[in-house]
Each structure stands twice: as structure tokens, then as C-alpha cells.
Design brief:
It is globular and about 65 Å long. By secondary structure, it is of the alpha/beta class. The strands form four sheets. A seven-stranded mixed beta sheet has the order 4-12-11-10-7-5-6, with helices on both faces. The protein is about 35% helix and about 15% strand. The protein contains 13 helices and 16 strands. The two termini are about 40 Å apart. The longest helix is centred in the first third of the chain and has 18 residues, at about 120-140. Keywords: Aminotransferase, Biotin biosynthesis, Cytoplasm, Pyridoxal phosphate, S-adenosyl-L-methionine, Transferase. It comes from Streptomyces chengmaiensis. It catalyses: (8S)-8-amino-7-oxononanoate + S-adenosyl-L-methionine = S-adenosyl-4-methylsulfanyl-2-oxobutanoate + (7R,8S)-7,8-diammoniononanoate. This is Adenosylmethionine-8-amino-7-oxononanoate aminotransferase. Pathway: Cofactor biosynthesis; biotin biosynthesis; 7,8-diaminononanoate from 8-amino-7-oxononanoate (SAM route): step 1/1.
Length: about 425
Amino acid sequence: MPEPLSPGELLALDRAHVWHPYGPMPGRTDPLVVQSASGVRLRLAEPVHGRSELIDGMSSWWSAIHGYNHPVLNEAARGQLERMSHVMFGGLTHEPAVRLAARLVEITPEPLEHVFLCDSGSVSVEVAVKMCLQHWRSLRRPAKRRLLTWRGGYHGDTWQPMSVCDPDGGMHGLWSGVLPEQIFADAPPAEYDPGYADALRALIARHAEELAAVIVEPVVQGAGGMRFCSPAYLRVLREACDAHDVLLVFDEIATGFGRTGELFAAEHAGVSPDVLCLGKALTGGYLTMAATLCTPRVAEGISRGEVPVLAHGPTFMGNPLASAVACASIDLLLAQDWRQEVKRIEAALRDELAAARDIPGVRDVRVLGAIGVVQLDHEVDMAAATRAAVGEGVWLRPFRDLVYTMPPYVTGDEDVARIAAGVGAAAAAG
């Protein structure tokens, strides 16, 4: 094995060669070097602002719901690694992927019965859009090729997902005029507004002949702005889509697996989509994997076409290692009282973040499930906010006008309080 790099050597190589998410090349600020992680703590290669370890308030972008280095997930990975780490999915199958697909069908709302396993959340949205477009083409209705969504959303960084991200306030304005032009409703209000509901119905009715699908993040809009909205709008969408022969897609990449207090956010409204996108917490943050589920109606429509197959097949589709860990993560989640743990975190965040309302420049504080958000009336000073959070011993990743947390479900009360203190410090400094 090669000699380990010193933190200085590692950062020099990182700065020269590594492109980080949403960052320039070369980078302008050095990332923190994580040496190891366990439970809810990230251990740094060298102290930063007097801290050698940080409580992770982000669940590694909302995926590590069980924390780090979990013995159950470690064992699932080790056991599968000894059998096979990967085998192509074209023409072959294997137990981990079959078990995972069956488990997802079992726990998601009916009638979602068919599962396409893919690489990442963004790709799961690509697959969902392809399913919807091909469904209508196969039924000889190619005019149904546009998507409708509401503003304030975020669905990923690949091509079709970028087209349904907010075109003005989102991250993909650069691609205006190049991306497919979709149909946007105003962002949904937090509380139910009959007038807004009527406007949604009217917009879907007006564009029904050209709409392949409506796609939204249910209840919580994630990276587009961390906004919450009434579940009643999901029922409005379901009814309007049924009335006008339009498919409905729920992007639950961020909200799936308990984050909002229900196993899937759609359950807040008691409705089911035609297509469901999952990712992030699917493997408990261990490996990249996502899934796109659909109803028999969607699958049968595709199968009746001139090209009766879904022409999509990632190299690592159904990866056995990721599938085995995903099965273990789902079983681990459902074997415990996860709902009570999320409620506990929700109550603690409500209590601990209440004081942030008095910080100058804070516009709003909101909490739902294991999600806590402090919204400012100005753009966050990322460097200052991060430095303040690290000074409290907490890792956060603020963006735009938001300082927020999505902690692992195993985060204890003392650590939730420290995370909230970090959020407050970041908001005050940012």
C-alpha cells in the first residue's frame, strides 16, 4: 500500500486535480480533510478552528440516515463483497437486486409494481421522464412530450432533470434556450390555497394535449429552496392528472425513507404517483444507487410500442454490492421505531431553532420531520457561515439564503442541540 499523504500533500493534489460539486477549477477554498467517520461524527485529518471532529448535520447530503460505519451495513457490504461485487445486469440477474426490487414494491404506495435500478437520483429522474415520454409515443400520442412542474423545484443536474428545475432561481439558468422548454406553475404556498389549487387544475387542463407528465417533489422542495407545502396539493395534482390523462411523477429522492415523518412524503396526502423516483438514503449513504418505480399502466404502455423496451441500461445497473446494502438499510430502518426517532428530532429542532428567529437577518425558521431550515433575507456568506458552524463543532453546508440541517436519524438529543447551535452561529455569521 502507498504511504498515506499528509493533509498538506492531499490538499495540494486536491487543489490541482479534483473538481468538487458546484465549484470552480481550480478551487478557491480548501475543503476539510475527513480521515474517518463513525456514528454521527466526521473525524478530521487535522484540527480546524480547534475542532478535530464535527457532528454531521447534513447526513452527507441527506443520505446517511443511520450515521457512519454502521455494523449492520458494514456486514452487508462485507458479505456481498465476498460473493461478488458486480456483475452485468443485461441477461443476468442476482438475489440482492431481486430482493431490493421486491422490497421497494412492498413498502411504496400501490400500484407501483415495476422497478428500474439506476446509478443516481438525477438518473432516476432521467429514467422517469423517458418512461413517460416513451409511454405516450408507444400509444401513438407523440404530441404529449412536455412536462409540468412548479417553480422552486430541483430534480438533478443531468439534462431532462435540469429542464424541470426552477429556470430563474435555480442553478441551471445557464442552459436557458438549450434545454427542453417545460411548463411552470408558481411555487406552491405553504398552506392550502383554493385559488392556487384552481390555477394548478386550469394549467394542467390547458396543456393536457401536450403534457406527458407532471413532476414534483412532494411536500418538501429540497435543493431548490427547502420549502414546505401542503400535502393537499398532491391530491389536486392526482385528480387533475387523472381527469386529463396525464402521468404523475413524484421525485422522492430527498424525502423518501422517513425524512418528512412518513416513510414516503406521498403518504402525507394518501395518494400514489404513476412513477416514483428514489435515491440518496436508499443505501444508507454507503453506495450510489437509485430507483425508478412505475405502475403496470406505464410499463404496459411502453411494451405496446414499436420499440417495446425501455432503452436505458447503465453499466452498474442493479449493482449487487449496492443492492445488498440497500436491502440491509431498509430492513434496519423498518426494524426500529424510525417514526418516533424522526418525531424526536423534529421536536428538538423546533425547540432549539426557535431562538434563531431573533437573529438579525433571519426571515423564517421552519421544521418538518428531521429537517430544520433557517432562511435569511440575504445570500449566505458561505465561508463565514461554515467557519462559525465548525467553531461549534458542526458540519453544515449552507447555500443561497439558507442554513439548514438534515441530521442522521441516530443523532442524540445533545448532538441535535449542538447542530442547532451550529445553525444559529452560521446564520448569525452568514
